[in-house]
Amino acid sequence: MNRFTRRELAVTLSASAVLLGSLEGQTPAPAPPVNPQVSPDDELKAARAQLRDNADQLDKVPLSMAAEPATTFRP
Amino acid sequence: MSSISDDIFFASIAEINQKLTKSEFSAVELARAFCDRLETIGPRYNALALSLRKGALRDAKEVDGDIKRERLRGHLQGIPFGAKDLLAYAKHPTTWGAQPYAGQVFDYTASVLKRIQKRGGLLTGKLAMVELAGGPSYRYASASLTGPGLNPWDSTRWSGGSSSGSAIAVAAGLVTYALGSETSGSILTPSAFCGVTGLRPTYGLVPRHGAMALSWTLDKIGPICRSAEDCGLVLEAIAGAEFEDPSSARKSFYYTPQFARDLKDVRVGFAPVDFNEAVDPAARADYAKALETIRSLGVKVVEAKLPEFPYGAVIGTIISAEGSAVFEEMIQSGKVDQLADQHQIAGLKAGLEISANDYLKAMRIRALIQEAFRDLLSTTDVLIAPTRFDPAPKITQPLDRRAVDRPAPATPGLAALIPAGNLAGLPALSIPCGFANGMPMGLQLVGSPFSENMLLAIGKTFQDRTDWHKRRPPLATP
């Protein structure tokens, strides 16, 4: 990755400039809604709680020793 | 003077290819017209990540030379297409829709793009996407470097994701077809919301070399088109063994509708509750007609139900564990905080804490799911259900909360078909089948591994008898 000659880099950067130019008419992206009641810490706690809930659901599925992980994905 | 009419922007691959070979217009004229449209209309819907006009016109010139010399390279020759911005295109920015990767440039091109370009396809643009293909889990449609994907049918509503730009561009006639990717729903959902036809191939059928990874054991690349037939033509070009993709099933695909199984021998399973109670009431009449059309194809329609598993918990654990492992460096470096969606930032951070035991448990249950689906699909060839039970939500609506207040049905029907089908590695086709208050709705067909030809045959026959896939959104003129 990123093995470029100076000329190639210049072409790439000009492509980026074209991109910026072409997106001038873009619909302004509204800022992602932020709930002031929910801090990043609260979000992280909620994400962890979701994963715990997932784990609890997995625990309810009976698994015999013969149930090996699905490591072969060529159905 | 260009002879590109508006109808060409919504024409099928075969129709355009025929006009090119008959010299009704040149590939250069066609590419220029599509590039103009993509650059003008694409940004209005936040669909465009990067215009590739220069390369497309250069390639179009070569195609014109080839056609003149009668060097014909198949249906995709000279046809403009777009690619989700998670596919590497050498020496051009590939952002994965995410701020931390906004300046990323690869020196190689994704296998699927090389395969299409070898057949003379014209890549006119990289298309917008949900940041990092949505892994692991975003709350708002605005979770994208290019802003929320706006639905061409109603720009106050979301396009669906994560292949947002791909579905928008096809629906709005900005490209003839596009490539998207699906880990769990990212082709089917935007296809249904935007009223186009999307195909999620069997896991391993289409090479992923050069594509962003979100979940190594779930990711698939597939076409988003205006018809099942176009999906078949694109799949034929992109499928096949790939040395550089360790997940490759090493199988080819040839689109052969003429050799499709007699539909009279096909058993189609459905859950009445999906169509009578679960789906948006405004769309039920159209779904009832869609079921009648399916019956009229001559197939045997039977009732079916999904094997009971906690599909959401299984796929959530796998995507979180694999996705956070994929992006560990970005998360640990703190760059993850540059993402647009707080919910997603937290999800990626938390995913690093999943225990090996929980991940293995999910993968062990997944093996049981695969086995259960092998049993189910040995007696029922195809499962059908509404792709999504509600139309596209408003762009400001939180996606992790149900927007409607109608009661959930007493039985789940096939509501979990998207995560279940992805966990089992099954192919799926979403076809437009009606509207709910002016917004498109889709019907998904799911079959056994490598049964794409059968799904496409049913989809094509359905589309021969209906015109939902030919409807066009009320676009603002360029």
In words, what does this structure look like?
Chain A is mainly α. Helix content of chain A is 49%, strand content 0%. Chain A is built from 2 helices and no strands. The longest helix of chain A has 20 residues, at 40-59. Chain B has 3 domains: 6-257, Amidase signature (AS) enzymes, CATH 3.90.1300; 267-309 and 366-470, Amidase signature (AS) enzymes; 312-358, no CATH class. In chain B, 36% of the residues lie in helices and 14% in strands. Chain B contains 15 helices and 13 strands. In chain B, strand 4 (150-151) and strand 5 form a beta hairpin. In chain B, helix 10 packs across helix 12 (342-351). The longest helix of chain B is centred in the last third of the chain and has 24 residues, at 356-379. Classes of the chains: A mainly alpha (75), B alpha/beta (478). Chains A and B meet through helix 1 and helix 2 of A and strand 1, helix 10, helix 12 and helix 13 of B.
Please give the structural blueprint.
The complex is a heterodimer of chains A (75) and B (478).
Chain A: H1 6-22, H2 40-59
Chain B: H1 13-21, H2 27-41, E1 48-51, H3 53-68, E2 80-84, H4 111-118, E3 122-127, E4 150-151, E5 154-158, H5 164-171, E6 177-182, H6 188-194, E7 197-200, E8 220-225, H7 228-238, E9 267-270, H8 272-278, H9 284-296, E10 300-303, H10 311-326, H11 328-333, H12 342-351, H13 356-379, E11 382-386, H14 417-423, E12 428-436, E13 439-447, H15 452-465
Parallel strand pairs in B: 2-3, 2-6, 9-10, 9-11
Antiparallel strand pairs in B: 1-3, 4-5, 6-8, 7-8, 7-12, 11-13, 12-13
What would the keywords be for this entry?
heterodimer, A: 75 residues, mainly alpha, B: 478 residues, alpha/beta, Amidase signature (AS) enzymes, 3 domains, 11-stranded mixed sheet, two-stranded antiparallel ribbon, 15 helices, 13 strands, 36% helix, globular
